[in-house]
Each structure stands twice: as C-alpha cells, then as structure tokens.
Design brief:
Radius of gyration: 16 Å
Distance between the termini: 38 Å
Shape: globular
Number of helices: 2
Strand content: 35-45%
Structural class: mainly beta
Helix content: 10-25%
Length: 194
C-alpha cells in the first residue's frame, strides 16, 4: 500500500508481527516492504518509490535487490520533503577500532558486542521541525531523532540493549512527517553470538 498513513509500516503492526515470526523461525523468509502506486480518492495517485541499492545498473541487479531486501520505500508527502537515505547499516560495537563486517538492509550480522547503527541521508525541503526518524527494534520504537533544519543527517548510535545469545532480532527505520510515514527501510537482522 501507500507509505503514508499506513498502519502496516508503523511500529507493532502486521509487518512487525511477520518479521518477529521470521526471527522466531516460524517463517522461512522475511517479508520486505514494497511500495506500490495506490489510488486514493480525490488525490490521484500517491507518489511512492522503491529506492534500490544496486551493485550494477541492470535488471538482474534490481531483481536481486528485490529478493534480498536491498531497498527502501519512500512517498512524497504533501510537503515534499524529498528525503533520501544513503546508508543504513549495523556493525558490532566491539569492532570500533578495527571495522569488521557491516550489515545493510536485508542483511544479517552476527555480533559479540552491541549493535552499532549508522544512518545517513538528506532532504531538500525544510520540514519546519516536524520530521522524525524512528528506530524500531523487534516491533518497538527504541530511539527517535528529530530534525529541525539540518538538511544532511549522519546519525550513529549504539543500542545498549543486550540481545539474548543465539536470538535473532531486527532493526528498521521509519521517517515520519506530520504523523505520516514518508520513508520506511527494510530491516537489518542481528544475531548475538552464543
């Protein structure tokens, strides 16, 4: 559906239940968020885009990205914030001085320490203080960032919640303006080493 006013994309909804089932081993495959055009009465077609991270610009790479969750969904809300995400990945906090593997959207990472999240992007129009990034872990919002006038953001933080060893968790992002979800990422999965 449309990425705006969408309870599916909000924390704790249907999508989070499906992702939690995957983490518990009740589903074989994770469910990805895919944006589609949707006719809403009176407003014409909502402008929804899937933004892919591709190693090469060809059809094969697009199919691969769709299959592996290497994309995010964004909609142009009425206030046209025109937001783009250039990075969302997780690293192991223990690799701070010696960067180890990184997990991007759709990836899994095994960690010994704590999850360290990196979020980068930009937007062209000032949202007048109503743009927020929400970090969702296992269906709950654990961190919220508010943007006032910065048009480039480069966030980095460590989630100090210790995942249980051997347990699979996930992190995903939503960006909200005027209580409408205008961007949603696919999840990054984290597995704590036993």
């Amino acid at each position: 559906g449309s990425a705006s006013d969408n309870p599916i994309l909000a924390a704790g909804g249907v999508w989070d239940n499906a992702l939690k089932d995957y983490c518990l081993g009740k589903r074989n495959q994770p469910a990805w968020a895919i944006g589609e055009a949707e006719y809403t009465s009176g407003n014409g077609i909502d402008s929804v885009q899937n933004i892919f991270f591709l190693p090469a610009f060809n059809a094969e790479s697009v199919y691969e990205a769709l299959h592996k969750g290497k994309f995010y969904v964004r909609s142009y809300s009425e206030n046209n914030i025109n937001i783009s995400l250039s990075d969302f990945h997780i690293e192991d906090s223990l690799n701070k001085d010696n960067p180890g593997p990184k997990a991007f959207m759709g990836d899994k990472i095994q960690i010994t320490g704590r999850p360290r999240l990196f979020i980068k992007g930009n937007f062209t129009n000032s949202p007048a203080g109503n743009l927020k990034a929400k970090v969702i872990r296992d269906g709950k919002v654990i961190r919220e960032f508010e943007f006032i006038n910065e048009q480039v953001f480069n966030l980095e933080f460590q989630d100090d919640w210790p995942p249980a060893s051997g347990k699979k968790s996930y992190f995903r992002l939503i960006f909200v303006a005027d209580n409408r979800v205008i961007l949603a990422t696919n999840p990054v999965f984290v597995i704590k080493n036993e």
